[in-house]
Amino acid sequence: MENLLESWVFKTILRPLLDISVLTFLLYQGYRILYQTRAIPLLRGIILMVLIYGLAVGLKLDTLTWILNFVAPGIFVGLAIVFQPELRKIFTQIGQGGWFTPTAKPKAQHVDAVLASCRQLSDMRRGALISFIRKVGLKNIVERGTNLDAEVSTALLTTIFSYDTPLHDGGLIIQGGRIVSAGCFYPLSENPTLSKSFGTRHRASLGLAEESDAVTVVVSEESGAISLAYSGALHYDLSAEELRRRLKDLLEFKDDEPTPASSGEFREDA
User: What is the bridge-based pairing of β-strands 171-175 and 146-151?
Assistant: First the structure.
């Protein structure tokens, strides 16, 4: 082993290659975590403050440097308070790990079954709240619901939400191609910019999107509008094509998989 570490090949080729590979991997994972949260503005703010401080020191602007040295601790504490949900999400994703293990992803047939059910529920003016787990686990929320471990199908989803069953009012969570839990209670968003016209379902979908990287499809009971919540934002009343396109980008499923007729396709009426 010592001979290998001291060899010319290891020192000049393998060690720099390993160094660059690990650094590239860490930078990529860091960017993914920042992108999946809303921490990009936080990063921009920190970079801006560092640039201003460097400029003040370089140009010997003593008054500005003194002010920045004085207020810097308060600024960082304030940023930690303001961006507390984003920071919590970053550390949650780091703690979840799973960087080297593939995440179970739904197939096209599962997404089409969900969207077909949402279309039926929309026509019936029945509300629905259906979430797809991605990288960040939802163990606490899943455990508070009713465990199902059932295959995703249009019939089952429509049955759960179209009648006043005990599972109707909560959210339903899908991991891979399985319904893991239903009747789940999500954290409600306290976003002051959210319209007062949105009810509990929309606030719950946005609340989950603010605290995790889950993707949630929400059907409005009042208007029948089908919306999508992810990455801390709610995208209201999307068309069938736009909804499926966004889900394909977010969940990374492939269209070349055969779709059973029983799952139903999601098409918008002409």
Answer: unpaired
For residue 239, give Cα distances in angstroms to 119, 122, 141, 202: 11, 12, 29, 17
Domain count within the chain: 2
The answer to whether residue 233 is domain-embedded is: yes
Rounded distance between C-alpha atoms, residue 175 and residue 152, angstroms: 10
Shared-domain flag, residues 66 and 168: no
**223-242: pLDDT as tens digits:** 999 999 998 899 999 999 99
Q: Kindly list the distances between the CA atom of residue 254 and the CA atoms of 112, 122, 150, 176, 268, in Å, as whole numbers in the listed order.
A: 12, 26, 22, 13, 20
pLDDT digits (tens, 9 = 90+) for 46-79: 788 888 888 888 888 888 888 888 887 887 787 6
State which of 71, 96, 121 marks the end of a domain: 96
Structure token pair of residue 188: 């409600």
The token duo for 193 is 């910019």
Single-letter code of the amino acid located at 147: N
Contacts 24+ apart (CB under 8 A), 232-238: 232/37, 232/38, 232/206, 233/206, 233/209, 234/194, 234/198, 234/202, 234/205, 234/206, 234/209, 236/202
143 and 229 in a single domain? The answer is yes
DSSP 255: T
